[in-house]
Specification:
This protein has a single domain (2-127), classed as 2-Layer Sandwich (Beta Polymerase, domain 2). A hairpin with a 2-residue loop joins strand 4 and strand 5. The strands form two sheets. A seven-stranded mixed β-sheet has the order 3-4-5-2-1-9-8. The protein has helices spanning 2-13, 22-28, 46-58, 76-81, 106-111, 128-138, 141-160, and strands at 18-21, 37-42, 62-63, 84-89, 92-97, 99-100, 104-105, 113-118, 121-126. 44% of the residues lie in helices and 23% in strands. It is of the alpha+beta class. The chain is built from seven helices and nine strands; from the N terminus they run αβαβαβαββββαββαα.
Length: 172
């Protein structure tokens, strides 16, 4: 958990415009599933790319799983030409997503998120509905296994808000 808190602190300290997605977002929404990395969807404007590059360089980010002899320049131009990156860093695993499959771009994620305090930092955190859509779209075993819990959390959230609508797990 310390790695997760350090990853969030990194983005807060550098003022990175992002929405927390993935396992950390699920945990912030009440999931008991363990996660071992920080996943964010990031704004792709020039100023934010600069902040993001500075943050990642400060923790010696390297591409996860890439051979060490492949040249990789961590700069704004690289991020602008890419989209989704997975990094190993001095503080743990960090995934930055320009697009969340099943949800959309940063603006879509932002629209479907709320301000939530996570490990003492205020972040936009993706909604349960959109987390479910993203997990379903990903279709990986680990994502599919968490769906029943996320769907139950969503039903509980809606009941607490007095929302009589039923959640259709087949709809994104």
């Amino acid at each position: 958990m310390a790695e997760i808190a350090l990853g969030l602190k990194l983005f807060a300290d550098f003022g990175v415009a992002c929405v927390v997605v993935g396992g950390v977002a699920a945990g912030a929404r009440g999931s008991s599933q363990a996660t071992f990395d920080v996943d964010i969807c990031y704004a792709r404007d020039t100023e934010n790319l600069t902040r993001l590059v500075r943050a990642l360089r400060s923790v010696n980010a390297t591409l996860r799983g890439a051979p060490h002899n492949i040249p990789f320049i961590l700069d704004e131009e690289t991020l602008r030409h890419g989209l989704n990156f997975t990094f190993d860093t001095d503080i743990g695993k960090i995934d930055i997503l320009g697009e969340v499959q099943g949800v959309g771009w940063y603006s879509d994620c932002f629209q479907h998120s709320d301000d939530i305090e996570v490990f003492g930092y205020q972040f936009r955190v993706l909604s349960l509905e959109k987390l479910i859509a993203a997990k379903r779209f990903a279709g990986r075993t680990k994502d599919l296994l968490v769906l029943p819990e996320l769907e139950a959390l969503l039903e509980h959230e809606r009941a607490a808000q007095g929302d009589p609508s039923e959640f259709d797990p087949k709809q994104p």
